[in-house]
Design a protein that fits this description.
Strand order of the largest sheet of chain B: 3-7-8-11-1-12-13-14-15
Strand content of chain C: 5-15%
Distance between the termini of chain C: 38 Å
Helix content of chain B: 25-40%
Strand order of the largest sheet of chain C: 2-3
Oligomer: heterotrimer
Structural class of chain C: alpha+beta
Number of strands of chain B: 17
Number of helices of chain C: 3
Largest sheet of chain B: 9 strands, mixed
Shape of chain C: flat
Structural class of chain B: alpha+beta
Chains: A alpha/beta (about 475), B alpha+beta (about 475), C alpha+beta (about 90)
Chain lengths: ~475, ~475, ~90
């Protein structure tokens, strides 16, 4: 077996034991990328030189007998909307095509400090707006399981990279499902933290009150390890929580007897593929077999989640993206005769169609005369949706649903059907609205394509999620499934 | 037709915190361009704001000093618009839940006390500065040093009834903010800015007339001038049967007129919504009370105390408490001194004169309170005449020397010795028999002539009061 | 279906311009999404408070202590056009 096939914790053990060097691990990964990324196109930028420099430094420290942490020498991929100083961060947009951030995102700083090595930046839907990575201004990323299909989005590149063993873990961002849905479609583990648990400093903002950065990994143990390094208060992010999060790996290998699981029926109804439903319910049965108590519940307000999301997140986005005006950084149009033209031409030429649509939608819902009917209304419904979850978690430890209503759809299939594309997020969006954490883990294959199970818990209920997810993984083989490339 | 003028003022004051509102860059006026900036105040993607707690403290202090209700719960909002000096293309401000509300400020108009209501005070951030090229150059440059500097916006109720009142309001407000030491309040540097809303209505009409907004008034004087002009403009239009166009107008200092700023852009739709990157500000009563107790003595209270403690008239106390610097200077001179009224006269007179002439601030005045006290003592003790004292004062300013030294150097010591003066007067009387007779015949201006002759004989050093007294005694 | 002039108004507010050939398509898409999110009008929730703060965090503030600013060269490295240490834009008429 090649090194690149292994999991993070397996590589970590080999590096620690001195069996392999960080450089060797990198060699393996870059070789893999050379072999398959031409077909997958997960990466937008590779940072080989810096990577080898970092690997050399790690190897030296190990040689000097230093005891290093879990992530030392582990190659990772980072979604291209997370700021990496000195390395292009494009958000898959023409408007930032040549933008090089002068500072690091908080999470990137922490991971670097922990010794993780940046392989490169991965592809996404432009400014994280999309569910298929087809909205990237530069290229599409293909699902490693079937190159004619999408990897999901918006963090398609990061999901595909881990699925294709082109990275041992990667970072994505999740605003309406952008980590979980591609994790589901690519058959990997994807985690969205409690809102505020991971610093957003350095993440190019889309929906400020929804965005969270999270990991893609090959299994739940790796996920717990990475979360330990991502979580933590950052004084540069005012929405960052000041909570001691403890060691998430303590939640591995735990008994789930007596765990109370709720199945919100609305998440198993409209639009859910019967095969997907069956596999998820089978998965739930396994958990039941391990001693968990399962009950059906109802979350009726969840059906309003997508409209709330498309109003509120778009509104925030319309404001967050206004800074891309061609003045201080990014693309400035070549032709303009006055200031207004500078703005209009730079933005119209620099942004893609989906981004423009959402900016206009957001602008509309905030504008005079419409604020109450749309934005303010959305905030009210947001409270109702959150309250509904809060109530459910008074009784249940976790809730389970499918992550995505379908398996990976074909490239181009939903491009002309706006609403169908938006419906991809029907199970994931409510979680962002409530600000609660959730994971997507593989729970089987349907016609050779991965299906994901979503496990959610109350705010800061990560331990319950990891407990259940790991118990499921330990008692099944789905995490061993790999695409043939 | 008699018209009533209605004015409301919107004042922006830059807070004199060490750092900006939402990042830790230096808050400094006049630094080299773009050297006090970071990703946050330059609006880089991924940068996030963090509120400076001093900003909240200063804003609450202003609210307390202006008799406002302090909101126990308030939040920030985004005000969205495009402009090159606005890096995020939105300003973090407060929309519907400001920090302070419903206050009032006392002003004195023609000896009458009047209260002007304060609708609200809220915190927000300043934008950068635009530097324009010359007429022929087709570009503008942007300096972001000022971007993110904290501001408080103070909105008055439309209780102001004349351009003079507006000026008095702004002067009083400026004084209070200076006393609190929360803002430099320098209109010429832009740390205090004022926009006005003005309308007129026929006396007796209940509804307000159509208002216009006036911008670009860069001094107290231009505020008054601009509003006087605009008031006239409104009255003229209305009396000719026309209608006022609701618009924003720019005061042109050189031409002395207001000009319409109507651009082809529609009215701004700022699309205010709650700032998702910041969290609510929840204050508790105890903390507010502590702040209230720690407030320095404010102008109104200080004025009252000056009148009581120093026995000076109301008018004097008003002038002396206009600015904190001046009141501190006065008090340093007057405390424990037996003639505070004389001190007051000197401060209101010569001190203010020289500050204005040399365009100085009181803190840069090189005359020490000790020096002024001594000067008054010398005059009171008859050593120095009032004319002589003025000369000494001027020299004190020029050289920084103390008054006694200067009296000697300038040879200004008055002759106050009664004996010597008696001799002198005797001499003058004997040489001016005719004047003596004229005086005895009833020609009172002969006295003045004789006083003059005595002064001349004393080479100007005779103490005029004593000369006068002895002359009269000897004549009668 | 949203009025053309309303769509143009919104685009102008956002400093965007639509290509003429795309106008109809964008108009349709926009209207479709707007109709969909209008689903919220089904709910009668006058007395519900809008949710503004997702977690219960309040009063996050920092001390008024100066930290070193970013050096100008790095700060302006991504500038499309600069002059005399400033960002350069088209002449702004005030």
């Amino acid at each position: 077996m090649d090194l690149y096939n292994l999991t993070l914790h397996e590589i970590r053990d080999k590096i620690r034991s001195g069996e392999i060097s960080a450089k060797e691990v990198l060699d393996s990964v870059y070789k893999r990328i050379e072999a398959v990324d031409g077909k997958i196109d997960a990466y937008l930028t590779l940072s080989k030189e810096n990577a080898y420099e970092a690997a050399e430094a790690i190897d030296k420290r190990i040689a000097q007998g230093e005891k290093l942490g879990d992530l030392a020498g582990i190659p990772m991929a980072v979604k291209d909307n997370i700021s990496t100083k000195g390395v292009k961060t494009t958000c898959a947009s023409k408007i930032l095509e040549n933008y090089i951030p002068p500072f690091d995102a908080h999470v990137y700083e922490k991971l670097k400090e922990a010794g993780a090595i940046l392989i490169g930046k991965t592809n996404l839907d432009e400014f994280a707006m999309g569910s298929s990575t087809e909205n990237s201004a530069f290229k599409i990323t293909r699902n490693p399981w079937d190159l004619e299909r999408v990897p999901g989005g918006s963090s398609g590149g990061s999901a595909a990279a881990v699925a294709a063993d082109e990275a041992f873990f990667s970072l994505g961002s999740d605003t309406g499902g952008s980590i979980r849905q591609p994790a589901s479609l690519c058959g990997v583990v994807g985690f969205k933290p409690t809102y505020g648990a991971v610093s957003r400093y350095g993440l190019v903002a889309f929906g400020s009150s929804f965005d969270q950065i999270g990991p893609f990994t090959k299994d739940v143990e790796d996920c717990a390890i990475v979360l330990n390094y991502l979580y933590g208060h950052d004084e540069r992010d005012s929405t960052s929580l000041q909570v001691e999060h403890g060691d998430f790996t303590q939640a591995l290998n735990k008994d789930i007897k007596g765990m109370k699981i709720g199945l919100p029926k609305e998440y198993f109804e409209e639009g859910i593929d019967p095969e997907v439903k069956r596999l998820v319910l089978d998965g739930v049965k396994i958990l039941e077999g391990l001693g968990a108590h399962v009950e059906e519940i109802s979350l009726p307000y969840s059906k309003y989640a997508l409209p709330v999301y498309y109003i509120a997140a778009s509104a925030e986005a319309s404001s967050n993206l206004a800074r891309f005006d061609g003045v201080r950084y990014g693309y400035r149009a070549k032709e303009y005769s006055n200031l207004e033209d500078l703005y209009i031409n730079s933005r119209s030429e620099g942004f893609g169609d989906e981004v423009k649509l959402r900016i206009m939608l957001g602008t509309y819902t905030l504008s005079s005369g419409y604020y109450d009917a749309y934005y303010n209304k959305a905030l009210k419904v947001r409270r109702l949706i959150k309250q509904e979850f809060d109530k459910a978690f008074e009784k249940y430890d976790i809730l389970i649903s499918p992550t995505s209503p379908t398996t990976a759809f074909k490239i181009g299939e939903r491009l002309d059907d706006q609403l169908a594309m938006y419906m991809s997020d029907i199970c994931t969006v409510p979680i962002n609205i409530a600000g609660i954490p959730a994971i997507s883990i593989p729970c089987g294959l349907s016609n050779g394509l991965p299906v994901g199970m979503q496990i959610m818990s109350r705010a800061l209920g990560e331990a319950s999620i990891i407990k259940a997810a790991h118990a499921f993984e330990r008692n099944t083989d789905f995490s061993k499934n790999k695409p043939t490339l | 037709m008699n018209y009533e003028t209605i004015i409301g003022l919107e004042v922006h004051a830059e807070l004199s915190t060490k750092t900006k509102a939402f990042c830790s860059c230096k808050n400094e006026f006049g630094g080299e361009v773009n050297t006090n900036c970071c990703p946050v105040c330059m609006g880089y993607p991924g940068a996030l704001p963090v509120l400076n707690k001093k900003v909240v403290e200063y804003a609450v202090k202003a609210g307390l000093a202006l008799n406002c209700q302090i909101s126990l719960y308030s939040k920030t909002d985004r005000k969205n618009y495009f402009y090159p000096d606005l890096p995020k293309a939105y300003q973090i401000s407060q929309y519907d839940q400001p920090l302070c509300k419903n206050g009032k400020i006392k002003i004195e108009v023609d000896g009458q006390e009047k209260y002007i209501g304060i609708t609200r005070i809220h915190i927000e951030e300043d934008a950068g500065k635009l530097i324009h090229g010359t007429e022929s150059e087709d570009y503008s440059l942007v300096d972001f040093n000022r971007s993110g500097v904290p501001l408080i916006e103070i909105v008055s109720e439309p209780d102001i009834r004349s351009p003079l009142e507006a000026r008095l309001y702004l002067e009083k407000l400026k004084g209070i903010l200076e006393y609190l030491e929360i803002s430099d309040c320098k209109m010429q540097e832009g740390s205090l800015r004022c926009d006005a809303n003005i309308s007129v209505r026929p006396v007796g009409q209940k509804e307000f007339g159509v208002k216009t907004e006036i911008k670009n008034m860069n001094s107290m004087k231009s505020l008054q001038r601009a509003l006087e002009y605009e008031e006239e403009r409104h009255k003229k239009i209305l009396s000719e049967g026309g209608t006022i166009v609701q618009e924003t107008r720019r005061w042109d200092e050189t031409k002395g007129i207001t000009v319409s700023m109507r651009t082809k852009e529609q009215a701004h739709d700022y699309r205010y919504f709650p700032e998702p990157d910041l969290v609510p500000i929840v204050l508790d009563e105890t903390w507010i009370e502590e702040l209230r107790k720690a407030l320095p003595e404010l102008p109104d209270d200080k004025k009252k105390r000056f009148v009581e403690e120093y026995g000076i008239p109301d008018y004097d106390a008003s002038v002396l408490t206009l600015t904190k610097g001046l009141s501190s200077f006065f008090e340093a001179c007057a405390k424990g001194h037996k003639n505070p009224k004389a001190i007051s006269n000197w401060v209101m007179g010569e001190v203010l004169r020289i500050l204005k002439e040399k365009e100085l601030e009181i803190k840069d005045l090189n005359i020490k309170p000790e020096g002024l006290r001594k000067l008054v003592d010398l005059v009171d003790g008859g050593v120095l005449s009032s004319t002589g004292a003025k000369q000494v004062f001027e020299e004190m300013f020029k050289t920084g020397k103390d008054p006694e030294t200067l009296v000697d150097e300038l040879g200004l010591k008055q002759i106050s010795d009664e004996g010597a003066i008696v001799e002198l007067v005797k001499q003058v009387l004997s040489e001016n028999q005719k004047s003596v007779e004229d005086y005895k015949k009833g020609k009172t201006n002969a006295l003045g002539y004789l006083v003059g002759q005595c002064m001349k004989a004393s080479k100007g050093k005779g103490n005029p009061q004593i000369i006068n007294k002895i002359l009269r005694d000897m004549l009668n | 279906m949203i009025e053309k002039k309303d769509l143009h108004y919104v685009a102008a507010l956002a400093r965007l311009k639509l290509r003429e050939e795309d106008e109809e398509k964008v108009r349709e898409k926009f209207s479709m999404v707007l109709d969909y999110v209008g689903m919220l009008n089904q709910l009668d929730i006058e007395d519900v408070e809008p949710l503004i703060s997702i977690n219960d965090v309040t009063n996050v503030m920092r001390e008024d202590e100066i930290k070193e600013s970013m050096d100008r060269e790095t700060l302006l490295a991504n500038a499309p056009d600069k002059m005399y240490g400033c960002i350069k834009v088209s002449k702004v008429i005030e």
